[in-house]
Design brief:
Strand 4, helix 4 and strand 5 (114-118) form a beta-alpha-beta unit. This protein has a single domain (16-255), classed as Alpha-Beta Barrel (TIM Barrel). Helix content is 35%, strand content 14%. It has 9 helices and 8 strands. The strands form 2 sheets. It has a 6-stranded parallel β-sheet, sandwiched between helices. Strands 2-3 form a two-stranded parallel ribbon. The chain has helices spanning 16-19, 54-66, 74-81, 97-110, 128-131, 143-151, 171-189, 205-213, 247-260, and strands at residues 30-35, 37-38, 51-52, 87-94, 114-118, 155-158, 220-224, 236-240. Helix 2 runs parallel beside helix 4 (97-110). By secondary structure, it is of the alpha/beta class. The chain binds zinc ion.
Length: 268
């Protein structure tokens, strides 16, 4: 249960998904949680870690609220890093429609404001970059859903136009992905786009330079860790919020994956 009237600061985080990383919430830094798809993982996915069940999202938010860890909207959280104000914020990569459908009600109930990093060239379409590696396609939010997301008080940021590996493409192409996604989202939704997110967390010095030049104030990576004063704003750390309520479930998933690959569980 959420306990807004009687938070218990420093209550240990017992939920399995946090117990490993719980120490970070006590450091006075900003923990940026990274989510992708809010849905049960389909049996055919090779990337189950990108799915979090809506019930587990609710449980994770309730536990952080209950432990007295402040949830700060992303834009404020980034500004808070330099001031040493601790807390957590919630980020969703890619703009999946299941986030709109399944996460939005949870965020509303828990009073949490989040940011979605949108692939500006694929609004209302599918995650074509995932299809290329054989993942079951998932629909992305359309423009109307993005507007509703904003109307609920949530933020949006840019996640390029087409979700490429930025350091691997020509610089002029990377420049267009970084600059044009900002411009396109600003034109389409009428809000300033101040934050960028690197697809796959892939970035190098040249990429960060372009992101700074485009006028973004922050850009999270997928590098694990909390954010303390001194963490570079264009290379922020994040914590992958996994759907891992029990080790047993993890083992079951591994067995299912190996079975799909035509292999048995090691040792059997
Ligand atoms: Zn992405």
């Amino acid at each position: 249960m959420n306990e807004p009237t009687d938070p218990q600061p420093n209550r240990p985080l017992e939920y399995t998904a946090w117990s490993r990383d719980g120490w970070m919430f006590d450091q006075g830094g900003v923990v940026i949680l990274m989510y992708h798809k809010i849905a049960p993982a389909p049996a055919t996915t090779n990337l189950p870690a990108l799915y979090v069940d809506p019930g587990d999202l609710d449980r994770q938010m309730a536990e952080l609220n209950g432990a007295g860890v402040a949830c700060i909207p992303y834009g404020e959280a980034v500004a808070a890093i330099g001031m040493g104000r601790g807390g957590f914020c919630v980020t969703f990569d890619d703009g999946f429609r299941n986030v709109f459908e399944r996460a939005l009600p949870v965020l509303k109930t828990r009073g949490i404001k989040a940011i979605q990093f949108l692939v500006a060239g694929l609004i209302g379409r599918e995650d074509e970059w995932d299809r290329a590696i054989g993942e079951p396609p998932q629909p992305l939010m359309d423009a109307g859903q993005v507007r509703e997301w904003l109307a609920e008080g949530h933020e949006i940021g840019a996640h390029t136009l087409t979700h490429p590996h930025l350091p691997a493409i020509p610089r002029e192409q990377a420049r267009a992905e970084i600059f044009d996604s900002k411009r396109r989202l600003e034109d389409q939704f009428g809000v300033p786009i101040r934050h960028f997110c690197y697809p796959y967390g892939d970035q190098d010095e040249a990429t960060r330079e372009l992101v700074g030049e485009a006028g973004y104030q922050s850009a999270p990576t997928v590098a694990f860790g909390t954010n303390l004063p001194g963490t570079p704003p264009l290379a922020l750390h994040r914590v992958m919020a996994c759907d891992a309520p029990s080790p047993l479930r993890k083992v079951k998933r591994k067995v299912a994956r190996l079975a799909r690959m035509g292999r048995g569980y090691p040792g059997r």
